[in-house]
Specification:
The chain contains 17 helices and six strands. The chain is an alpha+beta fold. Helix 1 runs antiparallel to helix 2, helix 4 packs antiparallel against helix 8 and helix 15 packs antiparallel against helix 17.
Length: 643
C-alpha cells in the first residue's frame, strides 16, 4: 500500500518552494521575450492602463503552459543539486533508498502538473489567445498618440501635414505653424500659416481642435465645374484667431472577434478535431473545382467529371486541324495580333494559376496549423515529464545547487528543445516535413537524453566528472600537468637516500642506453607505426622506477630535493609509439589518410617531447643524487653519534 513518508514530504517541500519561485522567473522571462517582439508596434500609441493590464493578463495566461516545463527543469535541478552538495543524497542512498524512490513523490506531482498543463491549454489558452490577438490587432490599428516634433513635418494626422517651428512644453503653445491640408485631390489643397496656436483632443478622442492665432489661409477653389478652365480661382483669408477641427481617432477600437476566431491557436482540442474534417472537405472541393476549371480551359470543352479526361485527351490527339497552315495564310498584321492575343491569354492563365496556387497553399497551411496545434497540446504536457527526468538526474549527478550551474544547464537544455521544436514546427507548417515528425522531433530528441541521464544517475555514474573529461582532453591534445610536491606536515619515516640515489644513477644509465638504441629524433616507418604491434615496455619500466624514487624522496624535508623533484616531467609512456593500443584501431587510423597523417605527426611530437624529457630527467637526477648522498652521510653520522 502506498504510504507517504517523511522523506517524501521533505523532498516535496523543497521542490514546491523552488518550483513556485522558478515558475514566476520563467514566466517573467517568457513574457518579456514575447513583449519584445511587439514593442516597436505598440510604443507611442498612448494606451491606457486598463488596456495594458488586459494585454499582460492575456499574455501571461497564454505563456503559462510554456513556463511550466522550464520551471520543472530548473527547480528539479536545484533540489537534487542541493541534496547532493550537502551530502543528504548520499545519506538517503546509504539508508537503502534508491534514487527512483526519492523521485517518487515528485513524479506524482509532475504528472499532476502535466495534466493541469494539458487542461489549461485545452480550455484557458485558446480563449486567452483569442482575446490577446484581438487586442494586438486593435492596438496595432490604433492611431499613434499625437506628439508633434519641432522642425520637421508631421504626417500622423490623416489628410494633413503639420510643421511647428517651436513648442512651449509648459503652456502647450505651438509657434511658427504651417499646415498643408488635402481634402479631395491635388487641386483642392489648402495652406494655413499661423504665428501661434494650441492643439487639444476632444473628450471622445475622435477629433482634434486647433486654435490658431494671427495667420492666413490659402485654398484652391477648383471644382468639377471648372475642370476645363485655364484660370483656377483660390481663396485667401487673413485671421486673428481661427478654430479648426481635424479628424483624429485616438481611441482603441476593438476588431471583430470573428476575424481572429478561425486561428488554430484560439481553438480547443475538440473543436480542432471537428474543424479538421470540415477543412479537409473544403480544401478538396476547392482543389477539385480548380482542377476541372483548368481542364475545361485547356481542352476548350465542358468537362463534367474527372472520368471524361481520357476521352478528352483522345479527342485532342485526334484533332487534325491544320493550325499552322491557317496561321500562314493570314496577313502579318493578323499574325501579330494572334500572337499578342495568345501571349495575353497565357499571361492571364499564369496569373490566375499563381493566385489559385497561393490560395491553395494558404488552405493547406491552415489545415496543417490545426494539426500542429492539436499535437502541441499533448507534446507540451509531455515535455513536463521529460524535463523532470532530465533535471532531477542531472542535479543528482553534478551535485551543484544554487542558481549557478543549474541555470546554465537549464538554459542549454531549453535552447536545444526550443531549436528542435521551433524548427520542426516551421518545417511541418510549410509542408517540408510530416506534421507528426515536425511536431514530435523535440520529444524524440530529448526522451533518449532523459532516459540516459536517469539510468546514469540511478547507477551513480560519473558521466559529468569534470576531471575525467579534462584528463581525456589533455591526453588527446598532448597536454600534461606539472608536479606539485610540497613538504609533508608529518614525516613518519625519512627517505632511503642511498637507495634512491643508486636508483637514479641506474635510471640515468638506462636512459643513456635507451637514447642510443631508439634514436628518437628519427622519423619512424609509418607501416611499423600503424600495422605492426608493439609497445615500448622499456620506457614504461624506466618511468615506473623513476616514480618510485620520486615518491620516496617526496617525504624529504630538504628544500633542494623538493624543488628539484618538481622539475621531473610527467612522461607519456605510450603516445610516442602508436596512436592506439588496439591493432585494428591503429590499422583503421592508418587507412584513413587525413586522420593517419594527423596522428603520425602527433606521434612525432611525442617522440621529440620524450627526447627532451629524458634529457631533463638526467640533468635533474645529476643535481639530486649528490644532495641525497650528502643527506645519507649526515644520517649515518647522526646515528653513530646517538650510539
Amino acid at each position: 500500500m502506498f504510504r507517504i513518508k517523511k522523506l517524501d514530504i521533505f523532498i516535496t517541500k523543497q521542490f514546491g518552494l523552488l518550483f513556485i519561485g522558478t515558475f514566476f522567473i520563467c514566466q517573467f522571462v517568457l513574457m518579456m521575450q514575447f513583449l519584445w517582439r511587439y514593442v516597436d508596434e505598440l510604443i507611442g500609441k498612448g494606451l491606457s492602463l486598463d488596456v495594458m493590464a488586459q494585454f499582460f493578463w492575456y499574455m501571461g495566461l497564454m505563456l503559462l503552459p510554456q513556463a511550466l516545463p522550464l520551471a520543472i527543469l530548473l527547480s528539479s535541478l536545484i533540489v537534487f543539486g542541493n541534496l547532493g552538495e550537502s551530502s543528504e543524497l548520499t545519506a538517503i542512498k546509504a539508508a537503502g533508498i534508491s534514487l527512483m524512490q526519492a523521485f517518487r513523490p515528485l513524479i506524482v506531482i509532475v504528472f499532476v502538473i502535466a495534466a493541469i498543463s494539458f487542461c489549461f491549454q485545452n480550455y484557458v489558452t485558446p480563449r486567452s489567445n483569442l482575446h490577446l490577438h484581438q487586442l494586438l490587432i486593435s492596438m496595432k490599428q490604433k492611431s499613434p498618440e499625437l506628439e508633434i516634433p519641432e522642425g520637421i513635418f508631421y504626417d500622423g494626422i490623416p489628410g494633413s501635414n503639420i510643421y511647428v517651428q517651436k513648442k512651449d512644453l509648459n503652456t502647450g503653445m505651438l509657434y511658427g505653424i504651417m499646415i498643408y491640408r488635402q481634402t479631395g485631390s491635388y487641386e483642392d489643397q489648402a495652406i494655413i500659416l499661423a504665428d501661434s496656436g494650441m492643439m487639444q483632443s476632444t473628450e471622445e478622442k475622435k477629433h482634434l481642435v486647433l486654435n490658431l492665432y494671427s495667420g492666413e489661409w490659402f485654398e484652391n477653389m477648383r471644382s468639377q465645374d471648372l475642370a476645363g478652365s485655364a484660370n483656377v480661382p483660390y481663396r485667401r483669408e487673413t485671421f486673428s484667431s481661427k478654430r479648426i477641427v481635424l479628424d483624429f481617432d485616438g481611441g482603441l477600437n476593438m476588431v471583430d472577434m470573428a476575424d481572429v476566431a478561425g486561428d488554430a491557436r484560439a481553438k480547443g482540442l475538440s473543436r480542432i478535431l471537428h474543424d479538421l474534417d470540415s477543412l479537409k472537405e473544403f480544401n478538396d472541393s476547392i482543389g477539385r473545382a480548380y482542377y476541372l476549371e483548368a481542364k475545361r480551359y485547356v481542352m476548350r470543352q465542358p468537362v463534367l467529371d474527372a472520368s471524361d479526361s481520357v476521352k478528352v485527351i483522345q479527342a485532342v490527339a485526334a484533332d487534325e486541324t491544320p493550325y499552322d497552315s491557317m496561321y500562314a495564310r493570314e496577313s502579318s498584321l493578323h499574325q501579330t495580333g494572334a500572337v499578342k492575343n495568345a501571349l495575353t491569354n497565357v499571361q492571364n492563365a499564369i496569373t490566375d494559376l499563381d493566385a489559385k496556387m497561393e490560395y491553395m497553399k494558404w488552405l493547406h497551411r491552415n489545415y496543417r496549423n490545426h494539426q500542429l496545434e492539436g499535437i502541441y497540446k499533448f507534446t507540451l504536457a509531455i515535455s513536463c515529464l521529460i524535463f523532470f527526468f532530465i533535471g532531477a538526474p542531472l542535479g543528482a549527478i553534478i551535485r551543484k545547487g544554487g542558481l549557478g550551474m543549474p541555470v546554465i544547464i537549464s538554459v542549454l537544455v531549453f535552447i536545444v528543445y526550443y531549436i528542435f521544436d521551433n524548427s520542426g514546427f516551421r518545417m511541418a507548417r510549410d509542408g517540408q516535413w510530416n506534421v507528426w515528425f515536425g511536431r514530435l522531433i523535440a520529444t524524440f530528441v530529448l526522451t533518449p537524453i532523459a532516459v540516459f541521464f536517469t539510468y546514469k544517475a540511478n547507477k551513480d555514474s560519473t558521466v559529468f566528472n569534470i576531471d575525467l573529461y579534462k584528463n581525456l582532453l589533455m591526453r588527446m591534445l598532448g597536454l600534461r600537468s606539472k608536479r606539485h610536491i610540497t613538504r609533508k606536515e608529518v614525516i613518519i619515516e625519512d627517505p632511503k637516500y642511498t637507495v634512491d640515489a643508486d636508483l637514479l644513477i641506474h635510471i640515468n644509465q638506462e636512459i643513456e642506453a635507451y637514447s642510443e638504441h631508439h634514436k628518437l629524433l628519427r622519423w619512424p616507418n609509418p607501416i611499423d607505426v600503424f600495422f605492426h604491434p608493439g609497445d615500448d615496455q622499456e620506457i614504461e619500466r624506466i618511468n615506473t622506477a623513476l616514480e618510485t624514487a620520486i615518491e620516496d624522496l617526496g617525504y624529504s624535508s630538504d628544500k633542494l630535493i623538493l624543488t628539484e623533484l618538481n622539475n621531473y616531467p610527467v612522461i607519456a609512456t605510450h603516445a610516442h609509439t602508436r596512436p592506439w593500443r588496439r591493432k585494428w584501431l591503429n590499422a583503421i587510423t592508418g587507412l584513413i589518410l587525413p586522420l593517419g597523417i594527423f596522428f603520425y605527426f602527433r606521434m612525432l611530437r611525442f617522440r621529440l617531447r620524450l627526447y627532451k624529457d629524458l634529457r631533463t630527467i638526467r640533468a635533474t637526477s645529476d643535481k639530486i643524487v649528490p644532495r641525497a648522498l650528502e643527506l645519507s652521510v649526515e644520517d649515518k653520522n647522526d646515528i653513530s653519534t646517538l650510539i
